[in-house]
């Protein structure tokens, strides 16, 4: 009887009737009283149906799997894997969106709708729309920090990236842990965006993170960190900045950062010494020696002046001319 089968299988009588109407289950026969009669094989088929349904198969797919002798499960399983991954991705995206909305602490449904609209705009195809969203996240609707970090780490348009960094810097230092994770990304561009974003965030925590980035294995990350630390007065950046001048890696900006650091009299001689050590003949090529000599121009103190005086008689004519010109400017000053 259907009631007995329902109790034994755990499948409701209503669902058993539905299976029968679809042709998935066919009772072996009926009793004299007209009740459905299920054999042991019928009950095993019911269990097979439930097992396949637990994998996410539709009832139509279950029927094909059980009745088609030529049915091969590999293709269907691959399709189920694909659909499951897509579902997980959708659910993960929804969870992320909900977490961001919750982090913004909306006061009412109007706030929720505004935040949703902002999140959608941050992911828009139009660069102009993304830029407006970044600006409005400061001026109108506060954006969840997590959303800003994700946006800035993935943004390729320089204007939008600048707006996002500006917005992130004004949200405080809550985004620093996520940006620190960005420094560990396997993608070089993401690491660059992370350190550039950290550089625009004021405060001791950002400075500490930039200081730690001076030992990063990515030379570009070290360079951007050093450029940001120069104006912050962090002496640890000096060796990296000197290397950048010598290697022509943002050398003009590196020289400016060294000049900013040299405003501290205690650092001026240290910077000059670092530049002079790289100027020794045979250490770097001629063009690098000229750049290092030029960098001495804005370094005050006797160490820099003595070095320039010696370089004015250098065997490299271009270096000697550069040093002589700088000395004249210093005398005039």
TrEMBL record:
InterPro entries documented for this protein: ARM-like (IPR011989), ARM-type_fold (IPR016024), DNA-bd_dom_put_sf (IPR009061), MerR-type_HTH_dom (IPR000551), MerR_fam (IPR047057), PBS_lyase_HEAT (IPR004155)
Keywords: DNA-binding
Superkingdom as given in the UniProt entry: Bacteria
SUPFAM superfamilies linked to this entry: ARM repeat, Putative DNA-binding domain
Transmembrane recorded as keyword: no
Presence of keyword DNA-binding: yes
Domain HTH merR-type: from-to ranges: 1-68
Gene3D superfamilies to which the protein is assigned, alphabetical: 1.10.1660.10, Leucine-rich Repeat Variant
MF terms (GO), sorted A to Z: DNA binding; DNA-binding transcription factor activity
PANTHER family: HTH MERR-TYPE DOMAIN-CONTAINING PROTEIN (PTHR30204:SF93), REDOX-CYCLING DRUG-SENSING TRANSCRIPTIONAL ACTIVATOR SOXR (PTHR30204)
Protein name: DNA-binding transcriptional MerR regulator
Naturally occurring in which organism (per UniProt): Actinomadura namibiensis
